[in-house]
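Entry 14. Ran structure prediction on the chain below.
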Amino acid sequence: MKIKRFLAPLFVVVLAVSFISGCASTPKDGAGTMEDQAKAAIAAASAAISKAASVGGEWRNSKKILGKAKKALKKGDFKKAIKIANKAKRQGELGYAQAMAEKNSRGQKFLGGGGGTAGDYTVASGDSLWSISGKSSVYGNAYQWPLIYKANKGSIKDADLIYPGQNFSIDRNASSADVDAAVAHAKTRGAWSVGTVEESDLKYLGQ
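Output, structure tokens:
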């Protein structure tokens, strides 16, 4: 009986030690899972960028951003790697969409018909300069959105941030040179962020 009484607490101690050891061997904060997610995010971003490049829509700094994600992964900063990779992926997806939109409207340098007047277009919820410019009633080419930006620079503080109810003038008499400059800017504008006026936008407005 004494032996059994001695072994019982010893058994409990052994179980406790085993449990603690098992916990100690478990990756902290799900590091392994985060690493897998980071690798998957980088792979998805790489695929999106390659897809954009296949149709000529790759943004000029997408690969640079992807490189930063890979460096973060190498350093073990998985959360940062995922965040940066997702940004690169979004650029790839947007670049692809832009290129396809241009392809569909190629040869349609639509300048509109008739003289435009102030308030040609009233911004609706969900609108962006990109989507407005792509409408057949405006330019029929999303890449020409800088024309709207320049024509309404007094009321548009940030090209990435417009509001429902705003009235924009649509320049329906833009020259071919103006259209080419707008499209070139749309393609080479680079990274953007809401609430910040990009340096490339300021240069375009100053042309």
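The mean pLDDT is 75. Will compare against last week's run tomorrow.
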